[in-house]
Amino acid sequence: MKVSIARGELLDALSTVSKGLSSRTTLPILSGIHIATKGDMVVFQATDLEISIKTSCKARIDEPGQAVLSGRLLTDIVRSLPEAAVTLEVSAGGSALVTCGQSKFTMKTLPADDYPKFPEVDPSTTVSLPTETFSRVVHQVSKAVSKDETRPILTGILVVVDSGILRMVATDSYRLCVREVAVEGMSGDIELVIPGKALEDVAKIAGAAESISLGVSENQVVFTFGDTTFISRRIEGSFPNYRQLLPKEHATRVIIDRAELLEAVKRVSLMAQHSTPLRISVSTAEHTLTLSAAAQDVGEATEDLQVTPEGEDIEIAFNHAYLVDGVQVAEGDTIALEITSPLKPGVLKPADGDGFTYLLMPVRLG
Amino acid sequence: MAEPPLTWHARAILHVDMDAFFASVEQLDNPEWRGRPVIVGGAPGGRGVVSAASYEARAFGVRSAMASGQAARLCPDAVWARPRFDRYRELSAEVHDIFRSVTPRVQQVSIDEAYLDVTPGAYAEADPVALAREIQRRVGGLGLSCSIGVGTSKTVAKIASDRDKPHGVTVVRPGREAVFLAVLPATVLPGIGAATAERLRDVGIHTLGELARLDATSAVRLLGSGGPDLVARAAGVDPRAVVADDTVKSVSNEHTFARDVRERTDVERTLRQLVARVAVRLRHKGLAARTLTVKLRYADFTTKTASRTLGVHTDLEDDLLPVALDVLHRAWTAGAGLRLLGFGVSNFGEPARQLELLAETPEEGHGRSRSLAESIDAVRDRFGDDAIVFGHIQNRADEEDE
């Protein structure tokens, strides 16, 4: 195989499929990117057996063929090269030559015949989503995805498309984020749980494409955008019934400028290192929301914000990182914080309008 | 220039005792209660007891630790307040700040009582009596009242502070200790309770002056091994220093094995015991820790420690034990002989717990751990550490007895 590809396009293709490289050392072949010619295109593939990614780019094909090259090394090499044509030449002897201008690299290849076949997915339903909307929603809910592998269902995001509404829900059992958005012209109904990491990866690499098509089969989900196909397994099991977790009433509601709250929470969090809780106390008489944190042997921080509280005076404590996450991704410039009691979840939502709910469980003190 | 005649040339210790502290705080926060008898404690309907009584209530004979029902009969018109310990601690901390501005040597004995070393030239500059009056004035500024004893030792200062309550300053100048104490009943000396006083009366000792003349042999016979110290204190001799409250940095416990142990079950059982003891001490001190350290000393005396930091502060063995066991097993391979095992915790903070959305009943699991731990603590406080133990620890004790 001998192909020449513009450095920029090659790097884009390699970066895209690199998301699928396996970090497991038990199967060395999975650390490689499969490269093959197809007509006047070069097709790149990577898989860790949970997700599989395929993309392609135009190339000058001097000699068709296929090869598997160390994904990390090849990507690092191409990233370091100047903007020019990169030639990739694979000899029968199991080594590859990468040249660009005056630079030459030879690297060992991995046996291409051992590479897993790219999965064939035959989706029963397909919906198309604007990339921008998709990526924003994923970004918002992914903060609440669990990293705890012992409860696999929580490492996923519930994705629902129903009557023109896209809804994503994630919870790590400490917080819960629900985002709903109407998408014009979207048709089809789906409901499935997709690994959070896969959705985040798609959101990252699909940036340039206008829209993403999402096809669902019995066990897998396939995303297609531009020249790229991204396949992930679905997560089996039933997602927690999040609706019953959403508080129906509240004792205190505080309307607050989101940017102002975020800055203040971040400042006070400096004193809430590790898991020292961040306390919030609301005074309706003083029209204040006071944030404070005290770390033993370190010091204390407190900040008063002028707010418009409704309801009762209340005190509650949260994990500062969970609060920062919520305020950071909340929808709207002005948000509402709703509190029921110091032992019940607090809720962040847009001050007016809906479509975004971030629930976080408090830290019980003492 | 000649020195003023009354310069204090000796150690100077203040004992500051807040006057009817809890009740005073309630009267401070509820101005309409001032001048009225106020009782802090469980309401008389139940089986509560009196935590504190204002001076107005004391006039009716109401005392701390009295059954609430009895207090209500003595003083039917009293205002009853439920204790608000957070508020008391808050004001106690403010009072403590005043002390700390006077001297670095402050030993807080309880929420409403402290010793201060104000020895001129050593820890303070001003005259001790002037300092006592200043403290009283500044405590008054918080809306509270205290009584202060000024003396050359803790014993003298403590006894003096109780002579003129409320709002008194009692000064026992250097050299006047024995005279001051001699006429007082022996029961004012801390350590002489009702039973001891009775034994002393049997041998004709009623006052501290009489106690001060007791010989060492009789002192041990009548008062036990601490007798000679009590006799010295009755004469005003008490060298004990005011020990500034150093913040506790860690709580730990170690066990040296009678012979090297290699078995996993033996080592785990000992670790369980150590963890349980450390957790009890944490709860007693009102501390919660995040960092756990397991210490291992091998047969060849090499020592190794391994630590882990938790997500939250805790004072419960249920939280500490699984992590401690994991740390142990990462640091130690069964079969390697151990001569010592230690367990300690540090990195203190507020006991806090991240609540969960998806737990069946969010509080249930943890609530049970806490109430179990507290019940066990209560049994141990009353009947001793061995009164109640877990089965997995008990087994070992039985085997050792065999």
Short summary of the structure?
The complex is a heterodimer of chains A (366) and B (402). With 366 residues, chain A is an alpha+beta fold.
Strand order of the largest sheet of chain B: 5-6-1-7-8
Count up the helices of chain B: 15
By secondary-structure content and strand pairing, the structural class of chain B works out as alpha+beta
CATH names the topology of the largest domain in chain A as DNA Polymerase III, Chain A, domain 2
In spatial order, strands of the major sheet of chain A run 5-1-7-8-9-6-2-3-4-17-16-15-10
- CATH C-level name of the largest domain in chain B: Alpha Beta
What is the count of β-strands of chain A? Answer: 27
Strand content of chain B: 15-25%
Euclidean distance between termini CA atoms of chain B? 79 Å
- The whole-angstrom Rg of chain A is 25 Å
Large-scale geometry of chain A? elongated
Relative strand content of chain A:
35-45%
Major sheet size, sense and barrel closure of chain B: 5 strands, mixed
What is the arithmetic mean of pLDDT of chain A? Answer: 92
Number of helices of chain A: 6
- The level of helicity of chain A is 10-25%
Oligomer: heterodimer
Q: Could you tell me the number of beta strands of chain B?
A: 13
Which two chains have the most extensive interface, and how many residues on each?
A-B, 26 and 21 residues
Low-confidence stretches of chain A: none
Structure description:
The complex is a heterodimer of chains A (366) and B (402). By secondary structure, chain A is an alpha+beta fold. Chain A has six helices and 27 strands. Chain A folds into three domains: 2-114, DNA Polymerase III, subunit A, domain 2 (DNA Polymerase III, Chain A, domain 2), CATH 3.10.150; 125-241, DNA Polymerase III, subunit A, domain 2 (DNA Polymerase III, Chain A, domain 2, Roll); 246-360, DNA Polymerase III, Chain A, domain 2, CATH 3.10.150. In chain A, strands 5-1-7-8-9-6-2-3-4-17-16-15-10 form a 13-stranded antiparallel sheet. A nine-stranded antiparallel sheet of chain A has the order 14-11-12-13-26-25-24-18-22. In chain A, helix 1 (7-18) runs antiparallel to helix 2 (71-80), helix 3 (131-142) packs across helix 4 and helix 5 runs antiparallel to helix 6. The longest helix of chain A is centred in the first third of the chain and has 12 residues, at 7-18. Chain B is of the alpha+beta class. Chain B has three domains: 1-174, Reverse transcriptase/Diguanylate cyclase domain (Alpha-Beta Plaits, 2-Layer Sandwich); 178-234, 5' to 3' exonuclease, C-terminal subdomain (DNA polymerase, domain 1); 250-401, DNA polymerase, Y-family, little finger domain (Dna Ligase, domain 1). Helix content of chain B is 41%, strand content 21%. Chain B has 15 helices and 13 strands. Chain B is globular, with a radius of gyration of 26 Å. Chain B starts with 12 loop residues before the first strand and ends with a helix. The A-B interface holds A 171, 173-176, 240, 245, 274-277, 294-297, 317, 319, 343, 345, 359, 361-366 and B 247, 290, 309, 311-313, 347-359, 362-363. Strand 27 of chain A pairs antiparallel with strand 13 of chain B, so a sheet runs across the interface.
